[in-house]
Amino acid sequence: VQLVESGGGLVQPGGSLRLSCAGSGFAFSRSNIGWFRQAPGKEREFVATVYWSDGSTYYADSVKGRFTISRDNAKTTAYLQMNSLKPEDTAVYYCNALGYWGQGTQVTASS
Question: For residue 1, what pLDDT band results from cuts at 50, 70 and 90?
Fold first, then answer.
């Protein structure tokens, strides 16, 4: 199983980023995919998940209405569209599938 995140960077508060999570080595289309984040000095926390069975999505209250998770099974890639970014969204973002983690991608919202 391999998960590779990309798309992080530095953005001003109020800006947008789209993260990607490319999966390989497992049945991507039949796996739930989750995004998590970890800020300095804090525990890793849930951000969003998309289920394989019906495409339903769930979000942490802190990102609901601002972030959108999606998946493209043909490309074995999941996405996290992040809008209206806030300084408190600053963290390393990880994707997860079948209990495996990617290496993470840094997102910094700062002026």
Answer: very high
Give 3's contacts (C-beta < 8 A, 6+ positions apart).
Answer: 21, 22, 23, 95, 96, 97, 100, 101, 102
φ/ψ bin of 89: left (φ > 0), alpha (ψ from -120 to 50), beta (otherwise): alpha
As a whole number of angstroms, the distance between CA 45 and CA 26 comes to 24
Backbone angles phi, psi at 87, to 5 degrees: -55, -35
Q: How many beta carbons lie within 10 A of that of residue 67, not counting itself?
A: 22
The residue behind tokens 């493209």 is 72
Cα–Cα distances (Å) from 101 to 3, 12, 22, 33, in that order, read: 7, 27, 11, 10
Q: CB 55: neighbour CB atoms within 10 A?
A: 10
